Amino acid sequence: MNRAKGRLLILPALLLAGAAFILSMHAQTSPDETAPRPESSSSLHLDPQVASALQKAMEEHDYATAEKLLLAEIDRDPHSQRSARLLDYAGTVYFANQDYLNAAVAWKKSEAIAPLDPKLRFSLAMAYVRLRRPDWARTVLESLARENGTDPLYPYWLGRLDYDGQFYNAAIKHFQRAIEIDPKFARAYDNRGLCYYYENQNDLAVADFQKAIALDLGSPHPSPWPYLNLGITQQFLNRLADSEKSIRDALRLDPELARAHFQLGTVLEDEDKPQAALSELKEASRLDPAYPEPHMAMARIYHKIGQEDEAKQEVKIYLRLRPHSTPDLP
Predict the structure, then answer these.
(1) Dihedral over alpha carbons 308, 309, 312, 314 (to 10 degrees)
(2) pLDDT tens digit string along 94-104?
(3) Which of 154, 206, 247, 269 gets the highest tally of CB atoms within 10 A of its CB?
C-alpha cells in the first residue's frame, strides 16, 4: 500500500470529507432546499395588530416572539382549518429557529386536521433528518416519491439516507433515479460518485465528480465539494498533481473551507513539502478550531522533521478534541 493510501485508511474522517451526513461535511445541500419558506401571513386571517407584530418579528428574526403570537392564535380554536394554517406557519418558524422537534410536532398536528402540502411534508422529512430519525424521514420521502415521480429531490434524499447508513449500492440506485428524472442534477452525480468511491469503483467516482463539476459551472454559486471529492479520490489513486489542482479549485470557490485546507495539507505532505503542508493545516485549524484531524496531521509532520515538542503539543490538542482516540504516528 502506498503512503497516501495508507494515511487515508488510518484517518477515516479524511475519507468522509464531503460526505458526512447533515450535515457536518458533504453530501451537498442547497442552502434553501431544506428550509421551508413561510407562506404569506395574509392567509392566516390575523387581527391587523397581531399581523403587524408577526411580520415585524419575522423580519427581525425574533422567532420566540413569532412563536408566542402564533401559539396564542392557535389556542383560540386548536382544531379548525385556520389553526391548521397557523400550525403550518408555526412549523416554518420553529424550523428557522432550529427547533426541529417542535417544527415536526406543529406539522403533525396540522396534518391531523388537514392534508399537509407536499412542500411541508418534505420539510417534515428534513426535520426528522435533523432529529436523527432517518426511519421517519424515509417513510415521508418514499410516500412523496410514489406520489410525484417527476421530482428528483425525493429519490436524491432517499439516496442521502442510504448513503449515511452506508448502504452504498442502494444509494447509487436512488441517485441514478434522480439523474434519470433530471440529467442536469449535479449534486446527484456528486453523491453517486461518493458511493462509487466507497465501493472502490474509482473510475466511476472520478467520472461522476467531473460530471458534477461540468454541470455546476453555469451555477451562480458553484459548489467546491465536487472538486474536493475529486481531489480526495485522485490522492487515493496517488495522482498527487491532479489532486492538488482539484483541491485548489475547491479553495478558489470557498477559501474558508477548512476541510479543503486540511486535504491540501495532506497532499502537500505526500509531495514532500512539509512547510507548505503545515501552513495549510494551520489554516484549517484556524478556520475550524473544533476540527481534530489537522492537529494529528501536523503532529505527524513535526515528528518527521524532528520537532518533537511541537508534535507532542499537536497530539495533546488532537486528544482534547477527540478524547477517545489512539493516535497513530509513524
Answers:
(1) -110
(2) 999 999 999 99
(3) 247
